[in-house]
Specification:
The complex is a heterodimer. By secondary structure, chain A is of the alpha/beta class. Chain A is 34% helix and 21% strand. Chain A has two domains: 253 residues, Aldehyde Dehydrogenase, Chain A, domain 1, CATH 3.40.605; 185 residues, Aldehyde Dehydrogenase, Chain A, domain 2 (3-Layer(aba) Sandwich). In chain B, the strands form three sheets. An eight-stranded antiparallel sheet of chain B has the order 8-9-10-15-14-13-11-12. A five-stranded parallel sheet of chain B has the order 4-3-5-6-7, with helices on both faces. In chain B, strands 1-2 form a two-stranded antiparallel ribbon. Classes of the chains: A alpha/beta, B alpha/beta.
Chain lengths: 485, 362
């Protein structure tokens, strides 16, 4: 134990206090996955500093409010080009970061292979460049000048909207860069952001921030606080509107708080109706993609398949497909699996699955088609191979479990009972043409996103809201009447 | 660190003074004429004779660590030296962070500690004849009387706003954060009222309470406060920098202190740019001294600049407390010109403790 300072000068990421860089006396270091090599040191904001800065948030808010939406949309497009192809300065005194540097850093600390990073980059690029379409989806096609003026006409009716917060707080995870797409529209909706990055993933939010700033967004609109648990709590506390990503306990903690949108486990599912179950073989690829896309790390990845019959046959068929998916090095162009930033997490999940399999009624079919353990090491990185478990009942403890890798359970439930049994589901891809069943699905209150037909659960249309509508979260409509005189 | 260059003679003088103090206090507590019942009983069963075998600070290693429970379960009179028999004493309590509070009895020790300390304060930051405000744990703590005595030594008077740290600790342990926040607001409400209607020159408080107060008032624009004493919870260099630069805007004198009911008051060496906001505290040697020890081999001190557990020895006629392991860990700091003996820096709760320490707002 020593308080001697670090000898080697590492690149340093400062705190951003409403756009102003700040070097803290408390710093953390991130190492390359599977090695002791230090890659970067990151200034940490103390909770008091975050609270202190928030006293001036109205200034950042005012600056952003002054810029016409049309200009912000143009800048967002330009920011997309910078994000995808340009260089940004995120290191204090260090060299600019290009797209390859970004991918190298992200892969080295988060475990994401380059192939998945590229897909996530493309997704974020789309959010930058198709912002107009996204906002049209969120506002139901409202003319954005109504946001500029505070009122206007929509469909021949007077409307007025006002922001209910001066900043959107976001406590981000480390598991997938794509989640950043959720807060990005806030800037064009003229609400500054206060971000707390995931420990291993400062790269994506920072690159997005600096791309926005380089394209002309006011720096004041961006606060970036790598911080402790106390600091995260402070962000959630001070912002009237906040997004947080977490597990079931996080969901429970903020349940019923209208100022907090929680993105927890998705428990997304593929359901096949009675009318299509005889064609199950046609849908195996849809199931595989729903489970495996983005390394199986997203809440929109399927964690369960529910069918009226053929559960075992479907499990076998998916298991055979899973056997083709190999653990690869991070730079393999066909890589589909992500390494775990914390190898102990892989051990823990592996043991949890083994424990679950001890309870009668579950069978891991993927084990029959691979010649190694579920948990593997490649170049010192820990990975988990895609896993499918057949359950003889939805009551089995493993059914619907969600892990940070491609894992899915399959069970049989009669169609008439399925909506009572599936529980909360962020995405349901329902493969059916049965109109009555479709009506039941449409009126089911515990399904958030509904895909009708053979659509993978991870498919995202940008004009559709995700887990709540950000515009409705940030703005409220008021009645407005103006006299003619 | 420029001011850390200490003359060899000063080091030797401090070391000699400490050894002399050890001999004096051992004689006092272990002699039948003046001794303390607890220590006399202890010596009758010990495998060495303190009167003969303890002649210097290093000889104190013959003692095992002083046990918390002695101050919890031995009756107060067991600690009264014969020479003080019949003289009413004050009972002070520790914070209770590590479990059931401990009691220390005393007569004039706290006055002695603070009498010496009062002389070190700067007249500009602590103008004589003014008013002070203490916002923090009062109750049975030695600190309550000490601060008032210190104010009096500076010809000042002191307002008090109590904060029951034990209640806050319970609220935090029970995860009743709303209640803890409401209680903090209650403390700040009272403080704000005093600051609104009374002229206060100096504030004594904890880092968390200072921050909460600064959420409500600007110390510079809204008050007459010229100096802030800060003590209680651990303060990282970033915390210190935040308080100095952001809360006090580099205009208010910031005086960190470290201490407790068992030690008295440790002063801090004035911060210099090269300290990078890392505070070094120095115990009131020879009345008390600290060692920063290897947690696994507590007979050994760690090297300068390394982190270890704080071990406290108190050497007064009112209390002899050898080798008490504090709840804190710290960096061992070199002697400096102002205090030519070992100090402690970056003090924080001892990380390897089996129990989770809740610091709360104190």
């Amino acid at each position: 134990m020593s308080d001697s300072s670090v000898q080697v000068e590492l690149p340093h990421i400062p705190v951003l206090r409403q756009g102003k860089a700040y070097t803290s006396l408390e710093k953390t270091e991130i190492t390359r996955l599977g090695s002791e090599e230090k890659l970067v040191e990151i200034s940490q904001a103390n909770a008091g500093l975050i609270r202190r800065d928030f006293r001036k948030i109205h200034k950042a808010y005012s600056v952003l409010q002054e810029i016409p939406s049309a200009d912000l949309l143009k800048m967002s497009k330009e920011a997309g080009e910078i994000f995808m192809n340009g260089e940004v300065s995120m290191f204090e005194g260090g060299k600019p970061q290009g797209p390859q540097d970004y991918m190298d850093s992200l892969s080295a600390t988060s475990g994401l292979p380059y192939a998945l990073i590229k897909r996530n980059m493309a997704k974020i690029y789309q959010v930058f460049t198709e912002m107009e379409q996204i906002l049209a989806g969120l506002t139901r096609g409202m003319d954005l000048s109504i946001i500029d003026n505070g009122y206007g006409q929509q469909g021949g009716v007077n409307v007025s909207f006002f922001p209910v917060t001066q900043a959107l707080g976001v406590v981000l995870p480390s598991n997938s860069p794509g989640v950043n797409s959720l807060w990005m529209p806030s800037l064009v909706l003229k609400v500054p952001v206060i971000l707390k990055p995931g420990r291993e993933e400062p790269w994506t939010p920072l690159r997005i921030i600096h791309s926005f700033i380089k394209a002309g967004f006011p720096p004041e609109a961006f606060s970036f606080y790598p911080t402790s648990h106390e600091g995260s709590g402070t962000i959630m506390d001070i912002c009237d509107r906040a997004l947080i990503f977490g597990d079931v306990s996080t969901v429970e903690k903020y349940a019923g708080n209208p100022g907090v949108q929680v993105h927890g486990p998705g428990w997304s599912k593929v359901i096949i109706g009675d009318d299509e179950i005889e064609n199950w073989e046609k849908y195996i690829d849809i199931i595989v993609e729903s489970v495996v896309a983005n390394g199986g790390r997203s809440c929109i990845n399927a964690s369960a398949v529910v069918v009226p019959k053929y559960a075992k046959e479907i499990s076998e068929a998916v298991a055979k497909k899973f056997a083709d998916i190999k653990a690869t090095s991070e730079d393999d162009p066909n890589a589909t699996l992500s390494a775990f930033a914390n190898p102990k997490m892989a051990d823990y999940i592996d043991a949890m699955i083994d424990d679950g399999l001890e309870t009668a009624g579950a069978q891991e079919l993927s084990a029959n088609y691979r010649d190694c353990q579920r948990r593997v090491e490649v170049d010192g990185r820990s990975l988990m191979l895609p896993t499918i478990v057949y359950c003889d009942s939805v009551e089995h403890p493993l059914f619907n479990k969600e892990f940070l890798f491609p894992f899915v359970t399959v069970a049989e439930v009669p169609q008439s009972d399925v909506l009572d049994k599936i529980g909360d589901s962020l995405v349901v891809s329902a493969i059916t043409h049965d109109e009555k069943f479709i009506r039941d699905l449409l009126s089911c209150s515990h399904i958030d996103r509904l895909n009708l037909g053979p659509v993978p659960t991870n498919h995202v249309e940008w004009d559709q809201p995700h887990e709540g509508n950000l515009f409705e979260f940030l703005y409220r409509r008021r009645s407005i009447q103006r006299s003619q005189s | 660190m420029s001011t850390d260059l200490v003359e060899e003679t000063a080091l030797q003088a401090a070391s000699d003074a400490l050894d002399a103090r050890v001999r004096e206090i051992i004689q006092w507590h272990f002699s039948p004429e003046t001794g303390t019942p607890f220590w006399l009983d202890w010596a009758s069963k010990a495998n060495f004779d303190p009167l003969k075998d303890v002649q210097s600070a290093s000889d104190l290693l013959k003692f095992d660590h002083f046990q918390d429970d002695w101050l919890r379960f031995e009756q107060p009179e067991r600690w009264v030296p014969k020479a003080y028999e019949g003289k009413p004493f004050t009972v002070f309590e520790t914070g209770g962070t590590t479990g059931m509070p401990k009691q220390r009895i005393g007569w004039e020790d706290y006055e002695t500690d603070y009498y010496d300390y009062a002389k070190t304060l700067d007249d500009k930051a602590f103008p004589p004849g003014g008013y002070w405000l203490m916002m923090g744990p009062t109750g049975p703590r030695r600190l309550r009387l000490s601060i008032e005595y210190l104010a009096h030594q500076r010809k000042c008077s002191c307002y008090f706003i109590d904060m029951d740290a034990r209640w806050v600790k319970k609220l935090i342990e029970r995860k009743q954060f709303d209640q803890a926040k409401a209680y903090m607001e209650h403390v700040i409400d009272q403080t704000e009222t005093i600051l609104k209607h009374r002229k206060v020159d100096a504030l004594f408080t904890t880092p968390k309470l200072l921050e909460a107060l600064c959420e409500r008032v600007s110390i510079i624009d809204d008050t007459d406060i010229k100096a802030v004493f800060c003590a209680g919870t651990s303060m990282s260099p970033q915390d210190v920098r935040f308080m100095i630069e952001e809360l006090l805007e580099n205009e208010i004198s910031f005086v960190p202190i470290y201490g407790n009911t068992l030690m008295g008051l440790a002063s801090s060496k004035p911060l210099e740019p090269e300290d990078n906001f890392s505070i070094s505290y120095y115990p009131p040697q020879p009345r008390a001294f600290t060692r920063v020890v290897d947690p696994k081999h507590t007979e050994n001190v760690v090297e300068y600049g390394e982190i270890g557990r704080v071990e406290l020895t108190t050497l007064t006629k009112e209390l002899f407390m050898p080798r008490f392991l504090e709840r804190d860990e710290a960096v061992r700091r070199k002697p400096c010109r102002l205090y030519p003996w070992d100090g402690v820096g970056d003090v924080r709760p001892f990380g390897a403790s089996e129990k989770k320490i809740v610091e709360g707002v104190y």
